[in-house]
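Hi support team,

I submitted a single chain yesterday and got back a structure, but I'm not sure I'm reading the token output correctly. Could someone confirm the output below corresponds to the sequence I sent? I've pasted both exactly as they appear in my results page.

Thanks,
R.
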Amino acid sequence: MKDGRIEVAPGVSLAARRRDARDRVADGSAAPFVLVHGLASNARTWDGVASRLADLGHPSVAVDLRGHGLSDRPAAGYDFATVAGDVAAVIRALGLDRPIVAGQSWGADVALEVAARHGEDVRGVACVDGGFLDLSREFPVWEEGAVALAPPVLEGMPATELEARIRSGHPDWSDAGVAATMANFEIRGDGTVAPRLAREHHMTILRALWERRTTEVLASADVPVLLLPADTGDADWTAAKRAAAGRVVSRLADGGPDGGRVRVRWFAPADHDIHVQHPGELAGVLHAAVTDGFFA
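Hi R., thanks for writing in. Yes, this is the structure output for that exact sequence:
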């Protein structure tokens, strides 16, 4: 694995984790992947998936988006157009040959924005428990959504307590997955944590998500789209996600001129962070979508 930085705009560079394929594939199925984390997360959460993809012949790069992880934290540029432009700049800087962009949660929406705005650089998008929901359907008034979706106040919590909470809530996560999730935070000299993403930027991104009309973006992203929702056991939320996925399928497959460029594969039961909980299985699903020709 090669860690480095890539300048994506004047004065803004992103931290990137590149991983070469371990086994070369001669049949043309070794598509590269760009791996995009969710809101207030970081690139390390993709390490398990990237390692398995490398075993299957796929090189990958996972990036810390602006304001996240080890990347720069500019005062502006947290809108979808700018963040998608950052990812497209990474693709071009590394000379990647039309990668598949896989994003989790907010990262799935970012991946779709990359395809919609920079489609010539992308061969497909994988949306890991994100990218297909219109939050305004669930929260018709922004002020209600802002209260419901705002991040918990964790600054000042002892790192040991936060790690214990993560382990308790996700007992089947690996030690590496827990450590990657802890990297969403800085650990200060007194042993307490502070989120790497500033709260004001977190709320700016949430507002952009709420204002977004996902099906319209999906329709304009003229590439194959693989939806990978999680059934977390919350019956109401899962029903909302099934309805949303159904609307996408209706728009892109059955009810429109787009043919069969959408596929849905549920993970059940699964956490929202499928890529942390089930990295091997997720990598296998992504690989299969390449080898069976879905991501042509």
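A quick pointer for reading it: The radius of gyration is 18 Å. Let us know if anything else looks off.

Best,
Support desk
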